[in-house]
């Protein structure tokens, strides 16, 4: 009888001790990251049958379990991976937006300054001071392009180093999870009790991994985890971890991406497979925002250079040089060619491809403009056909040869894309090239060295001027005249003199070029010879246009000549200055400033969108964490109450032993 | 609901951080005075600020150009005023010089006076602007537009070396205004005679016929051809259209209108001699310097006691005066055109000023902080932070362990 009480008392003492130990463990781990509170599962012992019925035999602790709800944990994981992705995206795009929004460091002030410089030249074209000021403003603009591009480049570098850091951490976590898998399998198989703290540690590692890249887990029968990421890519299988590596993208070796190391070597993973986590965040940032900003900056730089050069080429410098003269510098800005990157997996010996910008196009309203887009392009050669794909919207063109392809692009409904391709050598099947027309333009734009060294070479004047004969009896006047690309100015000292004949009612004296007369928008072409006079009609010949209006008399003359000594002429400077607001970009639809403003606004929009989604996802994460913690987290007051409970139960059990002992003593005293 | 101790701390710190983030943002707004700090805060407004900023800059540039253009035009206008005064003085002297009481030496002194006016006008025509560039040379700012030349016969002529270019300045989005006028337009595009035709007497006339003023009767029938009136006797003349060769005969009567030429009429006074010829030519452009040189030559010629020479003097004086009228008309026209350009600039400058104000206001609306709202938000956030801090301190102090 007494021994029964003893054994019950001892079991009660042991249970209380286990209870106290578990409670203390909970208190000790109240602040441990990833800890799930534990509790003892106490069950009563099997009763002994006596004549008096079943006599209870005390209790024992069957197991110590952790309070863990896998559903709630999964919710936290899902929310966490998305928050980490957005967090990484938001941090990077925030930096970019700070950079773009800085009024002094942004492009807007430099563009304004440049055009202010041109305006000053147009106010005083013969002054070297204003020309010097314009050249300085141009250098400021160019260095602003360069510095903005350098900062975007730094962001690319930053992304690359982030990818390296994340991949290293992912490998480390995968390895630790594999190791814990091994320990858990061993621990569990020895006595079939759950190693709760190992579980917690492994869950915590998966949670940390999940912050870097979105993963899913499955549990094996032996208690080990399999971890997958992306599209079912194995990261950890049981006790074996797959190693990821950082590889240069085969399409563009300047950007680092993720590869999987397997028996056959390293295989590059498409970025689209990575979803969730900080890794996906930086990939998305790079592909969705950074590429766009880098290309847009380059597009503005290339358009400024191409449009400005085209108009500048139509001018005459302070030394009297015009296009075609040996010392004339047509290009105010110099640019680097569009970047073409051959895929590193291309078959050896395949063709080399290069790209060049096409000259700015000329619209009917007198504006030079470019057709460049912000997209990158991919050129593939397969089955004897070259296919060029615009990556932003997958519009594609094809042709059997590069020349046919260029023609197909130029004549398609999409219209020209602002660059043309050329190739040397024969294409081999499976060749692929990445064409980034504008990526490097902001970095490569420069002010022409000759002009920077001698500002007299800025072409502020128009190459021709007009006059009416001194002895004209009539009152007809001639407009100052303008030129278009490819114009042929009269030779120095031999002006073109047009003579009006009242007998024929026409003008004679045109050089050998055909003549176009435009009346109310209707063109009529004439061979050089007698051209009928129409009051107010625009007469174009050899790329030179002017208007004669009024009533000429017989033998009245009109003269078109080289603008010799025209140092105070500012007509080309006026046209250059007008480019500030002209629709010089995107196929004659937008000005430099609107495109830049759109870029700033679009990056800002992406940033604010990411911030908004991040805030929403963070709320979800907080709620999921609250739900999980309210089940699994340690409450110290609760543990304090349990301490008291187990302490009292321990004291009661001890009392039981004391009573059993006294009972035994009583028996002995009888004896 | 059960709650874990870490939740209390996490929620507490999260709330404190949130409040502090808000306060940080508002504090930044308050200290910079800007509604948003990066494009992320308000992408649409950020783009608008850039575009409005550009419009403001361009408008300021236009305003600069307007005042620049105004001052250049005012300078040119003042030069032209001097030209007008000089021409008016010349006209007074020429009228005075026509007086029958003047002697050859009186006329010689008028010739000298006109010569100094001639030199003055050449100087005016070669005026330079503040930067040292010639005002009236068209596009060729450093080419002296009017250069005196000694002709082989000893006479002096002034030749225009500039061109007909007008320097323009951008003073509005789609408005360029001319800030100069070419020397040809100002000094050389003077119509001879009455603007339609000019009368002349042949140098070798031996009679005393003096041409009276001509008038246009019907501009539509005026042919624009040159006619020659040749006296076949003291009372008969033939009018020849030199372009067609058509000849019309007429009978001379002093001071009565000759209407043999379609569309115009004029008269001759005095007694033309047989063989004397007169011409009627369409008006052409003649440089002020040619007109003046002719007058100087006229006044330098001795006519005392010579009837034919006196008639020739009268004819030259009449045609010179008509030409001077043309000069004055032309300069006044250019002046009027400058005046209207300056008026337009004044109007444009008013537009620019009001646009400037509008752009500034727009920028301010887009960019500047509403201090009242921001300060009240600041006070609210601060109160919330205070509450969060004090409640957190109180809650974290509650523990059962305090009683054990």
Question: What's this model, at a glance?
Answer:
The complex is a heterodimer of chains A (671) and B (404). By secondary structure, chain A is α+β, with helices and mostly antiparallel strands.
Fold blueprint:
The complex is a heterodimer of chains A (671) and B (404).
Chain A: H1 2-28, E1 38-44, E2 48-50, E3 53-55, E4 59-66, H2 70-101, H3 107-123, H4 128-191, H5 196-212, E5 215-219, E6 225-229, E7 233-237, E8 240-241, E9 243-248, E10 256-262, E11 265-268, H6 277-312, E12 333-334, E13 339-342, E14 352-357, E15 361-362, E16 368-369, E17 377-382, E18 385-390, E19 395-399, H7 402-411, E20 419-424, E21 431-436, H8 441-444, E22 446-447, H9 449-453, E23 464-468, E24 477-478, E25 482-483, E26 496-501, E27 506-508, E28 515-519, E29 522-526, E30 531-532, E31 538-541, E32 544-549, E33 557-562, H10 571-578, H11 592-632, H12 636-670
Antiparallel strand pairs in A: 1-4, 2-3, 5-6, 6-7, 7-8, 9-10, 10-11, 12-22, 13-21, 14-20, 15-16, 17-18, 17-21, 18-19, 23-33, 24-32, 25-32, 26-27, 26-33, 27-30, 28-29, 28-31, 31-32
Helix pairs in contact in A: 1-12, 2-4, 2-5, 2-6, 2-11, 3-4, 3-10, 4-5, 4-6, 5-6, 6-11
Chain B: H1 5-32, H2 43-97, H3 104-125, E1 146-150, E2 156-160, E3 168-172, E4 175-178, H4 183-188, E5 190-191, E6 197-201, E7 210-211, E8 215-216, E9 227-231, E10 236-241, E11 247-251, E12 257-258, E13 264-269, E14 277-282, E15 285-286, H5 288-300, H6 307-367, H7 371-396
Helix pairs in contact in B: 1-7, 2-3, 2-6, 3-5, 5-6
* β-strand amount of chain B: 15-25%
Indicate the overall shape of chain A.
elongated
Number of helices in the DSSP assignment of chain A: 12
User: Which structural class do the helices and strands of chain B define?
Assistant: alpha+beta
Mean pLDDT of chain B: 86
Which shape of chain B, going by the Cα principal axes? rod-shaped
**Biggest sheet architecture of chain A:** 6 strands, antiparallel
Give me the oligomer status.
Answer: heterodimer
**SS-based structural class of chain A?**
alpha+beta
The residue-averaged pLDDT of chain A reads: 85
Portion in strands of chain A: 15-25%
Biggest sheet overview of chain B: 5 strands, antiparallel
Q: Tell me the Rg of chain A in angstroms.
A: 41 Å
Number of helices of chain B: 7
The number of distinct β-strands of chain A equals 33
Number of strand elements of chain B: 15
């Amino acid at each position: 009888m007494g021994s029964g009480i003893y054994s019950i008392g001892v079991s009660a003492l042991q249970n209380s001790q286990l209870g106290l130990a578990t409670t203390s463990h909970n208190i000790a781990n109240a602040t441990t990251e990833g800890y799930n509170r534990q509790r003892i599962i106490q069950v009563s012992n099997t009763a002994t049958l006596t004549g008096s019925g079943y006599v209870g035999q005390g209790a024992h602790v069957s197991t110590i379990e952790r309070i863990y709800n896998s559903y709630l944990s999964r919710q936290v994981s899902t929310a966490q991976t998305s928050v980490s992705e957005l967090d990484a995206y938001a941090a990077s795009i925030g930096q970019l937006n700070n950079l773009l929004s800085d009024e002094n460091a942004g492009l807007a002030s430099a563009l304004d300054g440049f055009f202010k410089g041109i305006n000053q030249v147009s106010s005083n074209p013969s002054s070297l001071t204003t020309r010097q000021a314009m050249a300085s403003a141009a250098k400021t603009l160019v260095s602003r392009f360069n510095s903005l591009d350098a900062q975007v480049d730094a962001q690319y570098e930053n992304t690359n180093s982030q990818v390296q850091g994340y991949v290293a951490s992912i490998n480390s976590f995968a390895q630790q999870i594999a190791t814990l898998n091994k320990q858990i399998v061993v621990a569990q198989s020895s006595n079939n009790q759950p190693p709760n703290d190992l579980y917690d540690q492994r869950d915590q590692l998966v949670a940390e991994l999940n912050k870097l890249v979105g993963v899913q887990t499955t549990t094996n029968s032996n208690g080990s985890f399999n971890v997958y990421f992306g599209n079912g890519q194995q990261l950890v299988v049981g006790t074996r971890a797959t190693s990821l590596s950082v590889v240069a993208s085969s399409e563009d070796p300047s950007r680092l991406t993720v590869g999987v190391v397997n028996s056959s070597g390293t295989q590059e993973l498409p970025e689209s497979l990575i979803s969730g986590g900080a890794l996906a965040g930086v990939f998305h940032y790079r592909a969705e925002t950074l590429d766009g900003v880098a290309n847009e900056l380059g597009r503005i730089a290339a358009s400024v250079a191409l449009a400005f050069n085209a108009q500048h080429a139509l001018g005459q410098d302070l030394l009297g040089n015009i296009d075609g003269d040996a010392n004339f510098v047509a290009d105010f800005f110099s640019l680097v060619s569009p970047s073409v990157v051959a895929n590193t997996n291309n078959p050896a010996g395949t063709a080399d491809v290069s790209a060049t910008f096409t000259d700015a196009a000329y619209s009917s309203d007198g504006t030079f403009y470019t057709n460049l887009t912000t997209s990158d392009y991919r050129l593939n050669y397969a089955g004897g056909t070259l296919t060029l794909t615009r990556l932003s919207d997958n519009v594609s063109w094809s042709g059997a040869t590069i020349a046919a392809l260029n023609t197909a692009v130029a004549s398609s409904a999409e219209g020209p894309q602002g660059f043309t391709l050329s190739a040397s050598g024969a294409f081999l099947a499976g060749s692929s090239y990445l064409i980034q027309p504008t990526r490097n333009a902001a970095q490569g734009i420069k002010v022409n060295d000759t002009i920077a060294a001698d500002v007299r070479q800025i072409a502020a004047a128009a190459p021709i001027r007009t006059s009416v004969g001194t002895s004209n009896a009539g009152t007809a006047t001639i407009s100052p005249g303008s030129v278009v690309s490819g114009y042929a100015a009269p030779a120095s000292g031999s002006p073109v003199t047009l003579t009006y004949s009242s007998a024929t009612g026409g003008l004679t004296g045109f050089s050998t070029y055909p003549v176009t007369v435009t009346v109310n928008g209707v063109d009529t072409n004439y061979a050089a010879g007698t051209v009928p006079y129409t009051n107010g009609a625009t007469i174009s010949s050899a790329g030179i246009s002017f208007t004669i209006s009024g009533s000429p008399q017989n033998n009245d003359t009109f003269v078109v000549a080289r603008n010799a000594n025209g140092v105070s002429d500012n007509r080309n400077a006026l046209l250059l200055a007008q480019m500030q607001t002209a629709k010089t970009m995107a196929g004659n639809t937008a000005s430099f400033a609107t495109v830049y403003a759109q870029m700033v606004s679009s990056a800002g929009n992406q940033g604010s969108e990411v911030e908004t989604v991040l805030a929403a996802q963070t709320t979800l994460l907080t709620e999921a964490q609250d739900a999980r913690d309210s089940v699994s987290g340690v409450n110290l007051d609760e543990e304090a109450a349990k301490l008291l409970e187990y302490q009292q139960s321990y004291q009661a059990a001890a009392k039981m032993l004391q009573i059993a002992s006294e009972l035994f003593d009583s028996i002995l005293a009888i004896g | 609901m059960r709650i874990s101790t870490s939740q209390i701390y996490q929620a507490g710190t999260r709330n404190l951080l949130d409040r502090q983030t808000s306060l940080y943002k508002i504090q930044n707004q308050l200290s910079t005075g800007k509604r948003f700090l990066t494009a992320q805060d308000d992408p649409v407004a950020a783009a608008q600020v850039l575009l409005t900023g550009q419009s403001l800059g361009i408008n300021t540039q236009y305003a600069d150009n307007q005042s620049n253009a105004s001052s250049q035009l005012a300078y040119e206008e003042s030069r032209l005023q001097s030209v007008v005064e000089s021409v008016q003085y010349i006209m007074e002297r020429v009228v005075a010089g026509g007086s029958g009481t003047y002697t050859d030496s009186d006329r010689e002194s008028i010739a000298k006076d006109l010569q100094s006016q001639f030199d003055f006008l050449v100087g005016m025509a070669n005026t330079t602007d503040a930067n040292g560039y010639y005002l009236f040379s068209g596009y060729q700012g450093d080419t002296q537009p009017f250069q005196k030349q000694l002709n082989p016969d000893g006479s002096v002529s002034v030749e225009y070396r500039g061109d007909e270019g007008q320097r323009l300045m951008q003073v509005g989005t789609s408005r360029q205004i001319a800030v100069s006028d070419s020397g040809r337009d100002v000094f050389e595009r003077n119509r001879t005679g009455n603007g339609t035709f000019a009368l002349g007497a042949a140098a070798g006339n031996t009679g005393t016929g003096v041409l009276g003023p001509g008038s246009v009767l019907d501009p539509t029938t005026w042919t624009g051809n040159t006619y020659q009136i040749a006296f076949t006797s003291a009372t008969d003349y033939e009018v020849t259209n030199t372009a067609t060769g058509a000849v019309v005969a007429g009978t001379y009567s002093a001071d009565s209108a000759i209407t043999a030429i379609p569309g115009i009429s004029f008269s001759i006074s005095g007694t033309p001699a047989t063989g004397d010829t007169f011409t009627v030519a369409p008006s052409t452009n003649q440089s002020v310097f040619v007109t003046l040189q002719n007058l100087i030559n006229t006044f330098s010629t001795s006519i005392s006691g010579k009837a034919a020479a006196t008639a020739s003097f009268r004819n030259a004086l009449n045609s010179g005066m008509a030409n001077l009228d043309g000069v004055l008309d032309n300069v006044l026209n250019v002046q009027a055109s400058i005046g209207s350009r300056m008026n337009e600039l004044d109007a444009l400058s008013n537009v620019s000023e009001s646009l400037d104000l509008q752009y500034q206001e727009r920028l301010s609306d887009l960019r500047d902080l509403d201090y009242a709202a921001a300060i009240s938000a600041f006070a609210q956030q601060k109160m919330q932070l205070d509450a969060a801090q004090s409640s957190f301190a109180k809650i974290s102090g509650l523990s059962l362990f305090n009683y054990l």
